[in-house]
Model the fold of this input.
Amino acid sequence: MARLADDEDHLLRSLSELSYCNPFEPVRIDAERAVLRDAHQPEALDSWSRTADGARTERPNIVAINELAAGLVERLYERQQVEGSLEGDEATLYDDLVTYTLYYRHVATLEAELVYPAAGDARIKRVWREYRKERERLLAPLADNERSRLSTSEHLFACLHQVRRAFDGIYHCLIGESAPATRLRAAVWQSIFTHDLRRYRRSLFGRMRELATLVTGPSGAGKELVAQAIGRSQYRPFDPEAESFVGEGDAFIALNLSALSPTLVESELFGHRKGAFTGATSDRVGWLERCPPHGAVFLDEIGDVDPSIQVKLLRVAQSRDYSRLGESESRSFAAKLVAATNRDLAAEMRAGRFREDLYYRLCSDQVVVPSLGEQLADQPAAIAGLVRFLVGRVLRDSEPAEAEALAEEVGDWITGRMPPSYEWPGNIRELEQCVRSVLVRREYHPTEVGAARTKRPTWLDDAERGQLSADELLNAYCRQVYGQQGGYEPAARVLGLDRRTVKSRVDSSD
Ligand SMILES: Nc1ncnc2c1ncn2[C@@H]1O[C@H](COP(=O)(O)OP(=O)(O)OP(=O)(O)O)[C@@H](O)[C@H]1O
Done:
């Protein structure tokens, strides 16, 4: 049997850990550090987050890890031909290494196919053939009994495609460099793959759709984006005979329940039979029936839904059964349910407006989306990255300098003219409006509702009441300016104090 040198053993094990960890948790950066040891280069951020400076997937650490992995896989392949095959635990780790290497070898094509799916089939066929051929070659040195307990190539290929879809939906769409935004990305990944990717790959991949997901958080904070990221990242089997994924492509169906009357909600969701109600002139197939098994139905504003429909949704969430309106035949829902609300469901239950049993069916997988105010309280400077991203979206296809100039204009308006403690009650949706308004009118004024939500710092009230010592007043003022300026140096300039004095006043314990 081939023997592993100590450094090869370390590399194999640390690469396996890296492959299976949640890429959006800070532990992922630790895992990269463990692989590279002294060769690891310091990172600006301690988690995977899209920044204005471009793609983090091209980071030097990833490039270095991929080179190490590609070198090791070929070395072990050759060595096994001469010294005999790896066995047991080491054979499994070698399979993880093969999976990792082939993922990165084909990721660019998978990504291109996701972005431009129209020409998808031919590319997928080509990648699949190369992938299978390469995997068969690299696993050939293993003994038959080892190979037979590994996943099939088509299952792994389906998992890799799913990982790429999930990564894209989270990394490219859920922006924010604050800790709450990082936690949100990690929670969305976990909702798709659970906390244990190995177990997911072994046995959960076909069952996660049976668990409904509840997304909560304030209006405009990104609940629908989260629902889309989850809904579009479900497992989709690969058919090796047809050399294509099973079922039709995109299958994310969103329904805003508060915008429809109860009868319409039922007819849209469950479908109806001709004559089931006035106006039902023909049979209608509902969205639960149309949605393919790898898709998701998104029930937005579930907190607003009529009690009569709550009972029927409970049946779907519990046993996956439903019937078309006007029909007694029972049908089975095959896909995933994702629901969202900005209401406080606990309060709704206390008031008797939301069924407890439905809540308990939905709450086992809950993703809580933080408000923009929470993100900025954690990291005031994070607003700059969000503004740059939103400007990029508004001015897409423009010259980078054009976008940079507008981002600066918006940033100047926010720091110069908006109250520093402004809470952004409309969340990221409001920040988008701010970007557009500055683009069109060179100004943004929050609505009265928003302005009223600005929290006045309590130290100002204390100062007005004459309850602060001169020291306390200066400390509080220094903290305020420091928060606005985002650093000791610029705060010191505004305050006319030296940097060290500002720092000691900001850090003082009163
Ligand atoms: N993390 C984020 N990164 C980038 N854009 C975001 C993020 N969160 C929200 N947005 C943008 O903010 C807007 C509002 O988001 P979304 O519709 O998902 O919010 P919501 O919570 O579902 O709101 P509502 O409760 O009113 O339906 C969208 O244009 C969305 O693209």
